[in-house]
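Dear Dr. H.,

I hope your travels went smoothly. While you were away I took the liberty of generating a structure for the chain from your last submission, since the lab meeting agenda had it listed for discussion. I wanted you to have the full record in hand beforehand rather than looking at slides cold. The sequence, exactly as received, is reproduced here:
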Amino acid sequence: MEAEKEFIEKYLKVYSGTQGLLPEKMEEFGEWYSDQGCLTREQLYQIAYESSTRSAYHVRKNPVDRCETVTGNVRDLEDDFSQ
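The corresponding predicted structure, in token form, is as follows:
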């Protein structure tokens, strides 16, 4: 029971900055992005599905090349809201 309490407390501290994703998953997604410079539609879908199945549905409605273009362009944006 104590281990569960520690687990919950640990992740509650970081939850607000993670969009509901575990920090380990966010790190994995960040590595994909850093290595490739963009995300594939399937990778973007996985991220969206982790945080919201509704968002995942919308990702699948976009063409493959659009997902890669949009995620690749994020690095060029300076506006935090747009990112």
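Two observations you may find useful: The chain has one domain: 2-76. Helices lie at 2-14, 23-36, 41-51, 53-60, 64-73.

With kind regards,
E. W.
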